[in-house]
Design goal:
The protein is an alpha/beta fold. It folds into 2 domains: 2-225, P-loop containing nucleotide triphosphate hydrolases (Rossmann fold); 231-294, 2-Layer Sandwich (Alpha-Beta Plaits), CATH 3.30.70. Helices cover 37% and strands 27% of the residues. The protein is built from 11 helices and 14 strands. It has helices spanning 45-52, 74-80, 96-106, 111-124, 140-151, 170-185, 197-203, 221-226, 240-250, 270-283, 298-306, and strands at residues 5-16, 19-30, 34-38, 60-65, 68-69, 81-84, 158-162, 189-194, 206-211, 214-219, 232-237, 255-257, 262-266, 288-294. The strands form 3 sheets. The chain has a 6-stranded mixed sheet with strand order 6-7-8-3-9-10, with helices on both faces. The chain has a 4-stranded antiparallel sheet with strand order 2-1-4-5, covered by helices on one side. The protein has a 4-stranded antiparallel sheet with strand order 12-13-11-14, covered by helices on one side. β1 and β2 (19-30) form a beta hairpin. α5 (140-151) runs parallel beside α6 (170-185). It is globular. The mean pLDDT is 89. The protein binds adenosine-5'-triphosphate. Adenosine-5'-triphosphate (ATP) binds at residues 16-17, 19, 21, 39, 41-47, 311.
């Protein structure tokens, strides 16, 4: 089983002076999947990624990446991985195509192969139209996509993406998300560190939440959300008197927010419960301002788990 994982870390420990940055860190990333590593500032995300990418030695525990032990076989690990950090690796003066050709040559592809690979990647990452423009004229999202394309020259088995959309506008972020999906379609497994919960929600098959150097929760985005008690139906009414009547109709489990004239009821069977609640309120002649089925957001999950907002 462990052999089939793209990344498998068990009990990793790392100390800086008297600060225990990783304190028994476990992680399992399935092949061809995206794992989101989420945690507040200083939780140990970067330390974990640097160890897994063989840039830093751990003091204890064990990690295997793409089938090789990071401590004993770092050269083999390096050949199998790509790393996209927050600092852009592309040369601003060169065009998109020249950048990718240059990376191809750095990775010892012949001139013809480097050019063909550059064209292939430009196409895959939606940069063909901009390929002959200097990278300095690119938008933030385009630059980041070029950066990710550069890390894909040799189609790494495992790619580490460190906060790939920090500082981008919504359009740039969604462009980068598409680029990540393209990579996963190509068979690359991804470990994504992010401070954006919606990003993990969009991209990750599974999420590990890290705090104080260890994983405190792990699961699919849906599993993490249902830990908070699952789905709810929120009903908003127009006035206080209706709030009281509606609360009576909806029964004991309803939570009431008097300021917002909102009643929130936990439900199990989403759609059936929704119809039932709407019908009961209608029959009681309660004039609803709004009714909505709601899953907890990952922000709420995070707050519940760590007692802190996401980084
Ligand atoms: P951020 O989201 O802020 O990047 P992070 O989760 O990536 O945080 P790390 O950078 O791994 O966290 O740091 C974990 C802890 O170890 C932090 O408290 C940090 O201050 C500390 N730390 C990191 N690098 C060093 C170092 N070289 N020397 C001493 N302490 C360090």
């Amino acid at each position: 089983m462990a052999d089939q994982l793209a990344v498998h870390a068990e009990g990793l420990r790392k100390r800086y002076g008297d600060h225990q940055a990783l304190d028994g860190f476990d992680l399992a990333v399935g092949q061809g999947t995206v794992c989101g590593l989420l945690g507040p500032n200083g939780a140990g995300k970067t330390t974990a990624v640097r160890i897994l990418a063989t840039l830093l030695r751990h003091d204890g525990g064990h990690a295997v990446v793409a089938g090789f032990d990071v401590a004993k076989q770092p050269i083999e690990v390096k050949k199998k991985i790509g790393l996209v950090g927050q600092q852009a690796a592309v040369d601003e003066i060169l065009t998109g195509r020249q950048n990718l050709e240059m990376f191809g040559r750095l990775f010892h592809l012949g001139a013809r192969r480097a050019r063909a690979r550059a064209d292939e990647l430009l196409e895959q990452f939606g940069l063909t139209d901009a390929k002959d423009r200097a990278a300095k004229t690119y938008s933030g999202g385009m630059r980041r996509r070029l950066d990710i394309a550069a890390s894909m020259i040799l189609a790494p088995a495992v790619l580490f993406l460190d906060e790939p959309t920090t500082g981008l506008d919504p359009r740039g972020r969604s462009e980068v998300w598409d680029a990540v999906r393209t990579m996963v379609d190509e068979g690359t497994s991804v470990l994504l560190t992010t401070q954006y919960l919606d990003e993990a929600d969009q991209l990750a098959d599974r999420i590990s939440v890290i705090d104080h150097g260890r994983v405190i929760a792990e699961g699919t985005p849906d599993q993490l959300k249902s830990r908070l008690g699952g789905d709810r139906i929120d009903v908003m009414v127009h006035e206080q008197a209706e709030l009281v009547r509606a609360t009576r109709v909806l029964g004991g489990q309803a939570e009431v927010d008097e300021d917002r004239l909102l009643i929130s009821v936990p439900v199990r069977d989403r759609v059936a419960a929704f119809t039932e609640v709407a019908k009961a309120l209608e029959q009681a002649n309660i004039d609803m301002a709004d009714i909505a089925l709601r899953r907890p957001t990952l922000d709420e999950v995070f707050l519940t788990l760590t007692g802190k907002e996401a980084a």
